[in-house]
Amino acid sequence: MLDEKETKDLLNFLKLDTRPDLKGQATEYILGLTGNKDSCRYLGSKPAFLKALLTLTRDPSVAIVKDCYHTLINLSADTTAHEALIKEANALPPLLHNLLDPGYLFADQICTILTNLSRNKETCREVFRAIQDEGVGLARIVEVFCTEGYNEKASLHYLGPLLSNLTQLPEARHFILDKDRLVYSALHYTHTVQCSAFRLSSSHSVASCMQCFFFLSPPACHEWLLSDAVDILPFLLLPLAGPEELSEEENEGLPVDLQYLPEDKRREKDPDIRNMLIETMLLLTSTKAGRQILKKKNVYPIMREFHKWEKEPDVIVSCEKLVQVLIGDEPETGMENLMEVNIPEDVEKKFQALDAEERKQIEKEREELLRSEAEGKAEVGSSEAKKECSGEALGR
């Protein structure tokens, strides 16, 4: 690790007017240091270093700017550097300014840094405050995220995790839930478009944001989100629906967007997204109104066919939990809101033990699935090799 003299000497090279070759060697060396936890924490505790790195993000050399951003990503991954980055280095204003530049080459790196800085609630509030105070506003962040091709040089996928982090704050959830802004409608529409286009990294971000939002939002909002005003359900169900032929009665009970799907309809490829969508619907069933709407909208036939198709053990478990709610009886009076039911400590411990056992079983089944797939590939390879050998023999 650097001592104080070496730190001071190295800092002298981190200036815009330093010779490019020396400056490049210095930033490359510092980036290497951040691969070590102790060195990373040491540099993260030096505001002068952080300020110098931020200054060099304006350097004319793309390589130097890239090294600086990657260094800041590594430093921001450690929570010990968050306060110095936000308060002493004042990193948020320049980062937000560059993020909104539609031609900025390193917007993705900025998204990653902001996502790292917003993981913990304390610094998340600082990020949210800066978004509001710097004239950016959460509405602008959502607009940029929902605009396909906003920045041709960056995908901006990590705006999804940033929004997901921000929803841990009541003020951010209140903004997204504002019925006049219809922000949530834009988010779940973006998710559907991205799923259908197989932009997995981005659709994963939106699904994660949606799940986090549902978990933290008050259950009273669920009925509104399921109402015709927002109509969230088709956007959650469509990626899970397949080409299977349903009866006329089953089709008629479904939302219009899910009726009589074509033979080439394909389900979401990413199992994590499938699982998050199902868990989001499970959250919607925590209230009586939510359960009634999901039953009325005929969710069960879609999930029944999905269960036949699904191979991933943990997704199957989530699906079975949802199906149990859809076909089960209503809870007794006074227990309609499952999020507010008081569970006795001894019963909670039993549930925790069952959950732990379930996780072990899921891991076992996943290992068996992976082993089976590997053996299947090996058999195919062996068969092809035999065919080639047979062909060579015939050629002789």
Structure overview:
With 396 residues, the protein is mainly alpha-helical. Helices cover 67% and strands 0% of the residues. It contains 22 helices and no strands. The chain has helices spanning 4-11, 20-33, 37-44, 47-55, 62-76, 82-88, 92-99, 107-117, 121-133, 138-146, 159-166, 170-177, 183-196, 200-216, 220-226, 233-237, 248-253, 271-284, 288-296, 299-309, 313-327, 345-395. α2 runs parallel beside α5, α5 (62-76) packs parallel to α8 and α11 (159-166) packs parallel to α14 (200-216). It starts with a helix and ends with a helix. The model is unreliable at 191-202 and 392-396 (pLDDT under 50).
Primary descriptors:
single chain, mainly alpha, disordered C terminus, Protein HGH1 homolog, Protein_HGH1_C
List low-pLDDT spans: 191-202, 392-396
Q: Could you tell me the radius of gyration in angstroms?
A: 26 Å
Shape: elongated
- Largest sheet properties: none
Strand content: under 5%
Percent helix range? 55-70%
> How many individual β-strands?
0
Total DSSP helices: 22
The N- and C-terminal alpha carbons lie at a distance of 66 Å
How would you summarize the topology of this molecule?
Elements lengths: L3 H8 L8 H14 L3 H8 L2 H9 L6 H15 L5 H7 L3 H8 L7 H11 L3 H13 L4 H9 L12 H8 L3 H8 L5 H14 L3 H17 L3 H7 L6 H5 L10 H6 L17 H14 L3 H9 L2 H11 L3 H15 L17 H51 L1
Helix pairs in contact: 2-5, 5-8, 7-8, 8-11, 10-13, 11-14, 13-14, 14-18, 18-21, 20-21
